[in-house]
Amino acid sequence: MHALTVRWSLADAPEGVEDKLAAYVEETSHARFTGMEGLRFKTWRMRPGEWFEGCYVFASDDARSTFQTSFELTAAESPGSQIIGSAPILIEPCEVVAVAEGGEGFVAAPRY
């Protein structure tokens, strides 16, 4: 599957940025990507004080490329960059080799 990782550093981010990012995902970003054409799924990951990232998995390489090109044009002004106070440090296409659903099932939610 065709994926894209976008990562921001939190090393110099303002105090409390982790809560602001989680609230943004819950209140705005999750809804924006739910049902998005060409996107199979998106995950948001964070290591407090270290990094925050979005991992997007697309149905096709064309969908990934189109999204990446569009995002790169505005990455420094994106909501994540505004909340963190800096542009992403990594925008990297990659391939997802496999996805396994565990015995507890998959739960899509705006916040865990």
Q: What do these coordinates show?
A:
This protein is α+β, with helices and mostly antiparallel strands. The protein has one domain: Alpha-Beta Plaits. The chain contains 3 helices and 4 strands. It is globular and about 35 Å long.
- Helix tally? 3
Question: Which stretches are poorly predicted, pLDDT < 50 over at least 5 residues?
Answer: none
Order of helices and strands: EHEEHHE
Report the biggest beta sheet as strand number plus sense, adding barrel if it closes. Answer: 4 strands, antiparallel
Straight-line N-to-C gap? 25 Å
Please report the total strand number as a whole number: 4
How would you write the strand order of the largest sheet? 2-3-1-4
- Shape type: globular
Mean pLDDT: 96
Tell me the CATH topology: Alpha-Beta Plaits
Class of secondary structure makeup: alpha+beta
CATH class label: Alpha Beta
The tally of domains stands at 1
Residues in β-strands, percent:
25-35%
Oligomer: single chain
Report Rg. Answer: 14 Å
- Please give the CATH architecture: 2-Layer Sandwich
Residue share in helix: 25-40%
Short summary of the structure?
The protein is an alpha+beta fold. It contains three helices and four strands. Strand 2 and strand 3 form a beta hairpin.
